[in-house]
Structure formats: C-alpha cells, structure tokens
Amino acid sequence: MFARRPSVNRRWAVTRTRSVVLLILAFAGCVLGCGTPNVGHQRLGIRTRSIFGARLSIKARVSERANRNNPVAVALVLVYDDALMETLQTMTARDWFEKAEQIKLDFPEHVAFDHWAWEWVPGQEAPVLHVPLKDRPQKAVIFADYLSPGDHRARVDVRRDIAIQLREDGFTVTDL
To answer: What CATH number does the domain located at 55-175 have?
Structure first.
C-alpha cells in the first residue's frame, strides 16, 4: 500500500500558521523592547499605553464632610504648552474656575491643553473615570474648588493612574 502524503493545502496551512506566530512574536518583541537602554516597567507602560490607546484612570473618593459638606468642583487640565503650564502652576483653584474661559481664548483648546471637569457631593460613590491621553508627553494639574483658603492645586503624573481623596478642607492625590 502506498503511504499517505499530506495534502498541499494542509502543508500550506501549517506554514502559514507558523508564519503568523513568528510575525506576532516579532511584533511583541518590537513593542516590548523599543528603543531606550533603560527600559523599566514604568517606561514600558508608557510605550504600550500610547500604542494601544492611552488613558488615565481616576478614582475619586469623596468624604462625608468634603468641602464642609458642599459639592466640590474638580478640573483636570492636561497641558501641552510650557508657557501655559507655568501660568497654571501659579494659579489657585479659584483662579482656574474664574478664568478658565479666558484661558481657553488665550491658549487654543486641544492644542495647548485638554480639560475635564466634574462635581461631586459629599459621600458620593464616584465611578472610576477614564480620560483619553494623546501620544505626546503631557503635564497635568488638578484643581478642586474648595470653600477653605488655599491653592487647592496638585500637579500629577499622567503615566500613573490616580486616586483623588476629597476631604473636608482639601484634597490629596495618590497613585491608584
């Protein structure tokens, strides 16, 4: 009897499968080993976030007595312009909420900055928020409009997801 030889179609399918696997492995190697000699897990996270649609996750925890039992307006400003960043670092939260419209006129929105705003009430269960990030490096500032005196401003690192704790007379930002 004759030995059965694999059909040409079956050999082609095996070869094609092997080629696809090798291509996937090569792509993964490029993504995971891109460019810099000092590739740590943090740097790797930035690269893969920008390739696969980067976003910043924010978890807000609102105290029962936040802002002396009043709603708290919070703004996240992602900054792409160094001159704007210098301006924002000198502003209080009250200044931001009063001058935001003028800043939008002075600095083009979506070019110099992007911003998101929320308002939470004391004791509110806030869902995790996901803010899309652009590819280029960004600086970010969070403003919280409190009744108490103070700047109520925090600079944040957009490479890490964050948790905002809204308290009675101020807020804190930590890594999530």
So the answer is: 2.60.40.4150
